[in-house]
Specification:
Blueprint (H helix, E strand, L loop, with lengths): L2 H17 L2 H4 L3 H13 L3 H14 L4 H13 L3 H15 L7 H11 L3 H14 L5 H21 L5 E5 L10 E8 L3 E9 L13 E11 L2 E7 L9 E8 L5 E8 L8 E9 L2 E2 L3 E2 L11 E8 L4 E7 L9 E8 L2 E2 L3 E2 L10 E7 L4 E6 L9 E8 L2 E2 L3 E2 L10 E6 L6 E5 L15 E7 L16 H7 L3 E4 L18 H9 L2 H8 L5 H38 L3 E9 L6 H21 L6 H4 L8 E10 L14 H4 L3 H6 L1 E9 L11 E3 L3 E8 L3 E10 L7 E6 L4 E4 L10 E9 L5 E11 L5 E11 L3
Parallel strand pairs: 25-26, 29-35
Antiparallel strand pairs: 1-23, 2-3, 3-4, 4-5, 6-7, 7-8, 8-9, 8-10, 11-12, 12-13, 13-14, 13-15, 16-17, 17-18, 18-19, 18-20, 21-22, 22-23, 24-27, 25-27, 28-30, 30-33, 31-34, 32-33, 34-35
Helix pairs in contact: 1-3, 1-4, 3-4, 4-5, 5-6, 6-7, 7-8, 8-9, 10-13, 12-13
């Protein structure tokens, strides 16, 4: 049976399964597993996930169904689901039947940006599986180190802006990739799209084919986007991954036969342009297209004497799975392919090479070199098989998702990349599909920004962290007192607080069942990992940079604000806020063997000094959604919303190395609430909040606190200049809710009003 026929049959059965009564479900558990396995064999990971999920509805205790669902979800980049179900399998199986479960859980957590959890699980995996295949042990070692570096990379962003190309003629809900700009007039890219475009999604997919497209650039955007020459986009083949000579007379691309090619083996092809017309392409020789291996993703480098074609292959003689190779082209003749060597290639995958001739720099993506998650973009100076150690190009070019196909325009130092980061358009899952993004270096960029990362000052790096938020357990430290100070330091209160995570989960989920119980526990887990732990990691980086600034002789002032939940009187809460601020001051005095004492006491011989200002504002800005009923402990103490209110923030950093005037940005929203109206259960809806920086210095949004895990937020990570504007995109997921729903998203920034709450509401109804 042909693949397309099998796929149609599988999807038809799945459709019938979704509409038949539950009594029929009980007879089809094994069938769902079987059809899921077939879909996995065909690399139809989305279809496989649907079958395995259907099997789980029939038997939620099946370890095999849960494991298979996690595997299929990971394969089509739905890392939220894969993390959830790997965790479920690990909790029940303890790694007995599925010894790689903790490894893939850690991979999924890293892809979700949970670096602390991922690092701990990589470490635990190595301890539990000392005899497992060396690939997984070596990979875990690298990934642990990458998790430790990730926060520092994110907290030192590039001076760059990234734009999601929202023109529907370019990015769609399917996959677009491999964008290269031709001069300043055209954009070539590849796209995987259905042969028949439907107005609405159906459960029965039609066939997909990748083709090469070209669009005309104009002041108003793209026009006349169409498929490239029909001699290149031949029917019955996937055609993609273009590289083209600077004079636009020669091009290389990859071609994959659509039928009778179960391994989707790719080959490299070449075409010439004669008198303005593309000639019939030819397949490159057998030393490049080695049977039965893949050769793909070509990248052309040109010089006066010869050209070099870099490409990706899994042929023998490499260092891992997919490696980058090169072949020298001189006088129309091709040399023998050569591996780039172990500086570039690893036991993992190295893909999507791009060589920037002007700076002699190779850009490529890797899932092995130390990155933020998935594929990261790296750069290395050199040529042929002589390369410097690769460097991560930085955030936000890289994210915890897949970031690939980096290119640089010939007319400037800006360019394009491909990513499945949140915000990309999709049909099947939020991070399933690739879109094209445009990056642009901001005005302060050095003369050659592609080769050198923008060099920020210590003061700039510190201000990027603000407001720096630290959290506390209820009425801590020194509970049930009116003291205004404490002998505890913040690290000790944090350790005690974090040890209560399981208590928070059980108390907040008390009385709940099913999805509501799972959701409540997941919300608390996410709060402790993504906010409590992350805040302390940021504090450690802040202290390191602060000490560097003081050691340079700077006179520094910081301001700490203290907050409380509205559980007791205002006077009591102000005193509690003062104790919380005091715990941080104690921590600063005690860390690093008292390294800050001479600056706090103004006795440093280099003239450096540290002044800490306090603003214990108590409950004055507490969220109106936090319960102040002491008998309602679930909502007044253990809820995620209440936990967000018990905190202190470092909101101001002033150094003599900066301006003498205290500068503040101002965050002004056109509107701070939105009602989505009626939403069918299981759907998602998005809304964009627009804002302006009305202050007198750069605005930096450092994070967002959400009242539940059902909302995802996308915000500008680059600084917004005075007078500049931006957008915050909010996506609400109604999968686990019914009835009237109100949620909040609190924006944290370095503005004078350091937190602003956006209110979201919807009425969730049954799916029609």
């Amino acid at each position: 049976m042909k693949k397309s026929a099998r796929t149609f049959r599988n999807l038809l059965i799945l459709l019938l399964g979704l509409i038949l009564a539950p009594s029929v479900y009980s007879q089809t558990f094994q069938e769902n597993l079987l059809y899921g396995d077939e879909a996995m064999d065909e690399k139809d990971y989305y279809g496989a996930a649907m079958f395995y999920r259907n099997a789980l509805y029939l038997d939620s205790t099946s370890l095999r169904a849960a494991w298979n669902y996690a595997e299929a979800s990971r394969q089509f980049n739905n890392y939220v689901e894969s993390e959830k179900f790997y965790a479920s399998v690990l909790e029940r199986d303890k790694g007995v039947r599925f010894e790689l479960c903790r490894f893939w859980l850690a991979i999924s957590q890293k892809a979700n940006g949970k670096y602390q959890q991922a690092g701990e699980n990589f470490k635990q995996f190595m301890l539990e599986n000392p005899t497992v295949d060396d690939y997984y042990l070596n990979k875990s070692t690298v990934e642990r180190e990458a998790c430790a570096l990730a926060l520092d990379i994110i907290n030192n962003p590039l001076n760059i802006s990234i734009e999601h190309l929202l023109d529907p003629k370019v990015n769609t809900a399917y996959s677009e990739f491999n964008a290269i700009q031709l001069g300043d007039t055209s954009l070539m890219f590849s796209a995987l799209r259905p042969l028949v475009m439907e107005e609405a999604e159906t459960i029965i997919d039609n066939s997909y084919m990748s083709s090469i497209y070209i669009g005309t650039l104009s002041q108003s955007g793209f026009s006349k986007v169409k498929k490239f020459d029909s001699k290149i986009n031949v029917s019955g083949f996937h055609n993609a991954n273009v590289t083209i000579s600077e004079d636009q007379t020669r091009m290389y691309f990859s071609r994959v036969e659509a039928e009778n090619n179960p391994q989707m083996k790719s080959e490299l092809w070449y075409a010439e342009n004669t008198l303005g017309k593309w000639q019939k392409p030819v397949r490159l020789n057998d030393s490049i297209n080695v049977e039965p291996y893949t050769s793909t993703q070509p990248a052309l480098s040109e010089s006066r004497e010869y050209s070099v074609l870099y490409f990706v292959s899994n042929r023998p003689g490499g260092f891992g799975k997919l490696d980058i190779w090169y072949v020298v082209i001189k006088d129309g003749k091709y040399g023998e392919p050569v591996n780039l060597g172990s500086n570039i290639n690893t036991p993992g995958d190295e893909i999507t090479p791009y060589y920037h001739d002007a700076t002699s720099t190779l850009y490529f993506s890797s899932d092995w070199h130390k990155g933020l998650g998935g594929y990261d973009i790296f750069k290395s100076k050199g040529a042929l098989n002589q390369w410097a150690a690769p460097k991560n190009v930085g955030y936000p070019l890289n994210t915890s998702y897949n970031d690939i196909y980096f290119t640089v325009n010939t007319v400037d130092n800006d360019g394009y990349l491909t990513s499945n980061r949140p915000g990309s358009l999709f049909i099947k899952s939020e991070t399933c599909c690739n879109d094209i993004y445009y990056y642009e270096w901001k005005p302060k960029t050095p003369a050659n920004p592609v080769a050198e990362v923008y060099d920020t000052t210590i003061q700039d790096r510190i201000r990027m962290l603000l407001p720096l938020t630290l959290y506390f357990h209820n009425d801590e430290p020194n509970p049930r007192t009116t003291d205004v100070t404490t002998t505890k330091n913040y690290q000790s209160t944090l350790s005690e607080y974090y040890a209560m995570k399981d208590t928070y989960k059980s108390e907040y989920a008390r009385g709940l069942t099913g999805f509501e119980e799972i959701k409540a526990k997941r919300d608390i887990e996410e709060f402790f990992e993504n906010y409590v732990k992350r805040g302390f990691a940021q504090l450690q980086l802040f202290n390191k940079l602060l000490l560097e600034d003081l050691n340079d002789g700077s006179r520094v002032k910081i301001m700490i604000k203290g907050y409380c939940s509205p559980l007791t009187s205002t006077e009591y809460n102000v005193n509690l806020a003062k104790r919380r601020i005091a715990s941080l001051k104690n921590y600063i005095r005690e860390i690093d063997g008292g390294a800050f004492l001479k600056y706090l006491d103004s006795t440093a011989t280099n003239g450096g000094a540290l002044t800490i200002m306090e603003d214990p504002i108590g409950e004055a800005t507490a969220s109106p959604f936090v319960s102040d009923n002491p008998n309602d402990r679930r909502n007044s103490i253990y809820s995620r919303t209440a936990a967000f209110e018990r905190k202190i923030q470092i909101v101001l950093y002033e150094s003599k190395a900066g301006t003498k005037e205290i500068l503040f940005p101002e965050l002004f929203f056109e509107a701070t609430s939105h009602d989505f109206g009626e939403m069918e259960q299981g759907t998602k809806a998005s809304w964009v909040f627009k804002f302006t920086n009305t202050g007198n210095t750069d605005l930096v949004i450092s994070g967002v606190e959400t009242s539940c895990g059902c909302t995802t937020i996308d915000w500008p990570h680059a600084p917004i200049e005075p007078g500049g504007s931006g957008e915050i995109r909010v996506v609400m997921n109604s999968e686990e809710y019914m009835g009237s729903k109100t949620e909040t998203a609190t924006i944290l920034s370095n503005a004078r009003q350091s937190k602003i709450t956006l209110n979201l509401s919807a009425n969730i109804i049954e799916k029609r």
